[in-house]
Amino acid sequence: MTAEAERAAGRPTGPGRPPEPGHDEKIIQATLRLIDQDKPVTVNAVVAGSGVSRAALYRRWNSLTDLMADALNHGRATPEVDITDDLKRTLLEMLFERLDEARGMGYPQRRFRKRLELVMADRDLQWAYWNSHVTRRRHGMIEALRAGVDRGEFRADLDVESALDAMLGVIYYQLVVRGADLADPETEQRCRQAFDVIWRGMGV
Amino acid sequence: MTAEAERAAGRPTGPGRPPEPGHDEKIIQATLRLIDQDKPVTVNAVVAGSGVSRAALYRRWNSLTDLMADALNHGRATPEVDITDDLKRTLLEMLFERLDEARGMGYPQRRFRKRLELVMADRDLQWAYWNSHVTRRRHGMIEALRAGVDRGEFRADLDVESALDAMLGVIYYQLVVRGADLADPETEQRCRQAFDVIWRGMGV
Question: Among all residues of chain A, which has the CA nearest to that of B134?
């Protein structure tokens, strides 16, 4: 909870007092503890682990699925994309350099694997995560690709959604099928080579 | 077990008798039952479920991981690729038409999802599956792409491994991130559009 929210909630804030996490944050953290410990995420377990009431949980989230999607996204940001800059450099930065932001790799690799494990086991969770978080994170890159079409850098009939699926798909393939580590230079090189192929293919 | 193997094992064969699965097949089937029922796969459970001895299991597989990788590949074939034919048509067929062979989608979707769930939870299983099965299934497509480089249809410096990662990555992205169904025409269309982008990008 921010200091503003603390004040709004009528709680004392200031340098003498460590920030106290709000209810939502406690609920998210309790959910992540269960996930990280490979324990089933149930409303009872989240309530017990967070010390927050069931009512508070349902005030913020419609369902356990929505809560899990938000918990799995915790710590991942939605990067801003400058679509007026050189587009190739912008996208390369998004995919390969601004890792913490774009792919949330500050986000531990173990949790990334756990997230995929959970979404493959639960299609509702997969769709909740896609709708709440992935589409939002794709937005800037889609805008950048659209700007490229508008500027005549890419083919006028380019399907930007599928082009982005190809760029991101290569990266997922490393993690999901090859079981490779993105920090491995050989893996990154493979992704960059594929990016170049896709980039050429989008050109006029 | 084939009739030849049955005869080699000194068992009677013929129209009057239903084919009896061999030990290996019984072990695979017991493993798949555990997997399909979301039960933990342990040596004890496989032995109990198959009626085959622990010794027979270890004669055929070095580890439970290797057995699980083979079980998860059960029913998937390694398609032959004709690299003398039109390469674009050949690859499109591999990726979009010969589904049962190439992606093993005869292979139920539920098991596909379960396989990804299991490999994300167990990196050793992921590598075993990659080494034993995925690389073998990629082989024909890699040969086709190499033939395209040799014939001058693609850039001489094309990295065929990463180009194939891009083609397959788009498909995995649908299943793993979008939670889409490949039988959905919109999803297939997205994959085909991405394939076209990649294909152009490989050209000279």
Answer: A177
Which residues, other chains included, contact A61 with Cβ-Cβ below 8 Å and sequence gap of 6+? A27, A67, A70
How distant, in Å, are the alpha carbons of A129, B19, B118, B167 from that of A134?
Answer: 7, 50, 23, 21
- Chain B touched by A193 (CB under 8 Å): yes
What is the value of ipTM here, to two decimals? Answer: 0.87
- Closest by CA to B52, choosing from B92, B88, B24, is B24
* Under 8 Å between Cβ of B159 and B109: no
Q: How many CB atoms lie within 10 A of CB A130?
A: 18
Q: Chain B: residue nearest A178 by CA?
A: B130
- Identify the residue whose tokens are 């960059």: A192
Query: Which helix (H) or strand (E) is B199 found in, with range?
Result: helix B185-202
Other Cβ atoms closer than 10 A to A166: 27
DSSP for A15-29 reads TTSPPPP-HHHHHHH
Contact between A188 and A96 under an 8 Å Cβ cutoff? The reply is yes
Q: Decide: helix, strand or coil at residue B155.
A: coil
**pLDDT (tens place) for every residue of chain A, 204 residues total:** 444 444 444 444 444 554 456 999 999 999 999 999 999 999 999 999 999 999 999 999 999 999 999 999 998 877 788 888 899 999 999 888 876 555 555 567 888 899 999 999 999 999 999 999 999 999 999 999 999 999 999 999 999 999 999 999 999 999 999 999 888 999 999 999 999 999 999 998
Paired strand residues for B178: none
Interface test with A, best of B37, B120, B158 (most A CBs within 10 A): B120
C-alpha to C-alpha distance for B204 and B200, rounded to whole angstroms:
9
Asked if residue B38 lies in contact with residue B121, where contact means CB atoms within 8 angstroms, the answer is no
The tokens of A9 are what?
């909630």
The alpha carbon of residue A186 and the mean position of all alpha carbons in its chain are separated, in whole angstroms, by: 24
Please give the average per-residue pLDDT across B80-98, as a whole number.
88
Question: How far B47 CA sits from the closest chain A CA (Å)?
Answer: 26
DSSP for B102-144, written as a single string: HT--SS-HHHHHHHHHHHHH-HHHHHHHIIIIIHHHHHHHHHH
Q: pLDDT tens digit string along B39-88?
A: 999 999 999 999 999 999 999 999 999 999 999 999 887 778 888 889 99
What amino acid occupies position A161?
E
